[in-house]
Write a structure and sequence with these properties.
The protein contains 3 helices and 4 strands. By secondary structure, the protein is of the alpha+beta class. It has a single domain (about 1-70), classed as Alpha-Beta Plaits (2-Layer Sandwich). The chain has a 4-stranded antiparallel β-sheet. A hairpin with a 2-residue loop joins strand 2 and strand 3 (about 35-40). It is globular and about 35 Å long. The chain starts with a strand and ends in a 21-residue tail after the last helix.
């Protein structure tokens, strides 16, 4: 499984909701526009393709930040607590 932080800045509210729903299908929301995504290589390509089709390439931006296993377990936060991801978490997308 590959781990990524998927972060986005979407200019249009309708596209923003669509991007958020797509990310929810593949990962766990960490902040409003930040998701932890653990996927196979095939699902990573599927996620990128769906997001590519959903955004406006001149106005919007989506970042895919790769994380190693140790990095994805080492989350820390200030303020509102966040649930740490578990190594046994699995997301199945049909």
């Amino acid at each position: 499984m590959l781990s990524y932080l998927v972060c986005y800045d979407i200019a249009d509210p309708k596209r923003l909701r669509k991007v958020a729903r797509l990310c929810e299908d593949f990962g766990y929301r960490k902040q409003y526009s930040v998701f932890l995504v653990r996927v196979s290589a095939t699902d990573y390509v599927r996620l990128r393709t769906r997001l590519y089709e959903a955004i406006n390439l001149t106005l919007d931006q989506v970042l895919f930040i790769p994380l190693c296993g140790k990095c994805s377990q080492g989350f820390d936060s200030l303020g509102k607590p966040t649930d740490p991801p578990e190594s046994k978490d699995v997301v199945v997308v049909v």
